[in-house]
Structure formats: C-alpha cells, structure tokens
Specification:
By secondary structure, the protein is mainly beta. The protein has one domain: Neuraminidase, CATH 2.120.10. It contains no helices and 24 strands. The strands form six sheets. It has a four-stranded antiparallel beta sheet, with no helix packed on it. It is globular and about 45 Å long.
Length: 259
C-alpha cells in the first residue's frame, strides 16, 4: 500500500497491508502526493511540486526510476491508471479551472475530456472495465460525484446534496462506488451502487474517515482516520490501524499483485 506522508513536506511511503515494513519511496524537499499504482502493481504515478508547480511523475513501485511525464505551467495532480495500464487520467488547472485530462501513460497525447465552464472537475478514477470514469465536480455549487464515459461523453451526476461528496473509487467488480462525504461531521466514508442508488454510510469514526479506496479483491477498504491509515472491511466493520504517526498520512492506494 502506498500513501503520502509528511508535515511541512509530503513524500510517498509504502507499507504492507498488515502494517509492517514501512518504507519511504521518494526523497524530495518538495511535495510528492496522490500515489496511484498501475494495474500490474509495478509502477506508481504521483504528483510532485519539485519543478515549481505540480506535475505528474511515474516511478517503479520500489521508488526507483522517477520520470516526469507532464510539463506545464499549471498544476497537474491526482493521477489514475486505466485498467490496461496504457493511459493515465488526471486533474489539471490548464483550462483556467480544474478539468480532467487523459494521456498515454508515457505522457503523450494529452487531451482534456471535461470542459465545464466556471467549475472544477477532479479526482478521476477509471471503472474496472475502463469504459467509465468517476470524478468529483462542483458544477452545482458544491462537490458531487459524477460518472462519464472514458471519452468524456454522457456525464451523469450521482449524488445530489448541499454539502461535499468527493473522492470516488470503484469496487473491483464495478458494481459499487465508495466516496467521502461531509453530509455528517466529521467527513465519513459512504458507498453506493455504481448508478448512484442505495447510498449508505459505512464509517462513524470520531476523527472522520477520508480518502477511501478498495483493496484489489474488494473485501477491504483503506481510509485515513485522523493522522493514520486504517483498513476496514468493505461493510465498514473490523477496523485495523496500519500506521502510527505524529504527522498526516493519507490518500492511500493498494498495490495489485504484480503480474
């Protein structure tokens, strides 16, 4: 499992799913954030501010061979690989507002797939089939969860609240979406069917539960509670603390078994 960790400067760390073998993957004086594993578990995409603004980088899962794949004068962040590993979708400020951009995993053929006037679209993630993307947008005045085709067509709003719903992640079978919601305080983890129905709260933690992501088998979630990473069953039960920090550790991602 990879996650960002740090106080004034964040770097990418990894830990086994039982909480052992914590190790640092990036050694940088600028922020390295938003780690996302490739489908084969061999690479990690992440955002780094090391060139003066956030750009997308890719490295091996052991932290070696870091390579910058976007080069823009605005922020690019929150990357996610397509299920076949050939594309990366990410959030970018290049349109004046945050929009969603897709590119080849090596950085080529970058193109915007959302063009929402006066609003921010971000936190994209592919469905397991690669046919859809779930994302967050504030186009109705607060953050809500949307889906669209991978081309950007057929955009549909799944949540409708007067407060923030954000950070979606598809279950491995594509039938559910887990997300973070401020409809209770502090933010908690919610789940719904992939069409937006049957929304229900999974966590009720005093420190909140943010940034949920499914394990590769769909049986567990990794979430941030307070300053630490926890894993819980996908029904919200059986919490287990994986890190013990005095500074923030958050936005985890599970490593698929290398193949």
């Amino acid at each position: 499992m990879a996650f960002e960790h740090g106080g004034t400067v964040a770097n990418i760390f990894a830990v086994k799913s039982n909480g052992t073998h914590l190790r640092r993957l990036t050694q940088n004086r600028h922020d390295d954030i938003a780690a996302a594993f490739s489908p084969n578990g061999k690479k990690i995409a992440f955002a780094s501010s090391r060139d003066g603004d956030y750009e997308i980088f890719v490295m091996k899962a052991n932290g070696k061979r870091e390579r910058q794949v976007t080069h823009n004068a605005v922020d690019d962040f929150n990357p996610a690989f397509s299920p076949n590993g050939r594309k990366i979708v990410f959030e970018s400020d290049r349109g004046g507002h945050e929009s969603i951009v897709a590119m080849r995993a090596g950085g080529g053929h970058q193109h915007r797939i959302t063009h929402t006037s006066g609003a921010d679209d971000g936190q994209p993630v592919y469905s397991p089939s690669g046919r859809k993307i779930a994302f967050t947008s504030d186009r109705d005045g607060d953050n809500e969860i949307f889906t669209m085709r991978a081309s950007g067509a057929d955009q549909r709003q799944l949540t409708h609240n007067s407060i923030d719903d954000r950070g979606p992640d598809f279950s491995p079978n594509g039938k559910r979406i887990v997300f973070q919601s401020a409809r209770v305080s502090p933010d908690q983890t919610f789940v719904m069917k992939a069409n937006g129905t049957h929304q229900r709260q999974l966590t009720d933690d005093a420190e909140g539960a943010s940034g949920p992501v499914y394990s590769p088998n769909g049986r567990q979630l990794a979430v941030t509670e307070g300053l630490d990473i926890f894993k819980i069953r996908s029904d919200g039960t059986h919490q287990r603390r994986l890190t013990h920090n005095t500074v923030f550790a958050g936005y985890p991602d599970w490593q698929p078994l290398p193949r």
